[in-house]
Amino acid sequence: MKIKKLKPLLINIFKKHGLNIKHAEISSNALLNAELVGAYGHGLSRLKMYCDRINKKVINPKPKIKIKKISQSISHIDANNSIGFVAADIAIKKAIQNAKKTGIGLVAVKNSGHYGLSGYYAEQAVKKNLITMIFTNAPPAVAPHGALKSLFGTNPICFGTPTGSKIPFILDTSISMINRGKIRVAARNNQKIPEGVALDKFGKPTTDAKKALEGVQLPIAGFRGSGLAWMVDILSGVLTGGNHSGKVKDPFDDFSGPQNIGHLFITFKTNLFVNNFNNRIINNIKTIKNLPKIKGIKEIMYPGQNKYKRFKMNSKKEIKISQIIRKDLRILQN
Question: Are 171 and 157 in contact (CB under 8 A)?
Fold first, then answer.
């Protein structure tokens, strides 16, 4: 389906579920971006989930979002259980605004929900010539190192910086071997997941996506990945006033209340310490790209390059929609 046809369809679905036109457009843009960069686990496959949560009154379609000014640089946002896209959109724009005024912007968000891809918001800051770091927590999926029970989310870590070229450096990675969205897509389509990424509820390795959702996802780098997940839980949950310590509700399965996810957005100017950042980052990337390459590697890529290429390529094509998602779209329109 062409984007020009799909976008108004998504906007109308969100409006039908109570969002105003501005919030519906923000949410639709975020979902479409996920499709265009190839992050299908964060794209249309989640549309029904957001609408279900609105219908169950655990996402507030008409939130009264409050922004508390702590200082010229620091803001604290109470998202009033809004859809996460809207809370994050307000937060990154406020962080950018603060950074442009003072050199640094620090924005914490509480009472939010799942906001899609962290990299989507990082790109907005980088386009304004800012460096950014973004953190958000998620429902339990990963067991702390040494524990038998899931508690941490896949808690993504995101970093973005200008590069002196049109392609930004965007590192957006979950602390798990693969993100939970990919496992959900696999489960819905009866597909296998790779070996070594999850355990079933009995602690045995599994490639069955449905059993993985009932079990535990494995962190990157063993105890180090577990430590990073803990760090993100503190930064985005404990610090912000959001839920933490395994209390974030699963958006697909738990409708007992709002998620109260916390986010933390940090943005700052590239010239805080040096006036020639642009030259230095160009030299940094050039030096690394010119290193000797192992067999089969044509180019050393920095984070964000492949995603940029996918976005450009997919923007010229129609978005492929599976039969399952087509069914969702038909149901949600009626």
Answer: yes
Three-state DSSP at 169 gives strand
- Reported confidence tier of residue 311, pLDDT bands at 50, 70, 90: very high
* Domain chopping of the chain, boundaries: 1-55+317-334, 62-176+219-303
**Cα separation, 150 vs 165, whole angstroms:** 41
Instruction: From the options 1.10.1530.10, 1.20.120.80, 2.60.40.10, 2.130.10.120, give the CATH code of 1-55+317-334.
Output: 1.10.1530.10
Q: Are 35 and 235 in contact (CB under 8 A)?
A: no
Question: What residue type is 181 in one-letter code?
Answer: G
Using alpha carbons only, give the angle 190, 195, 200 rounded to the nearest 5 degrees: 70
Name the 3-class secondary structure at 33: helix
- Burial status of residue 13 (CB atoms within 10 A of its CB: 0-12, 13-18, 19 or more): buried
Third-level CATH fold of 62-176+219-303: Ribosomal Protein S8; Chain: A, domain 1 (3.30.1370)
pLDDT tens digits for range 181-240? 889 989 988 999 999 999 998 889 999 999 999 999 999 988 999 999 999 999 999 999
**CA–CA distance, 6 with 115 (Å, rounded to integer):** 20
Model confidence pTM above 0.90? yes
49-80 CB burial, b ≥16 within 10 A, e <16: bbbbbbeeebbbbebebeeeeeeebbbbbbbb
Distance between CA 68 and CA 49 in Å, rounded?
A: 30
The predicted structure's pLDDT at residue 207: 96
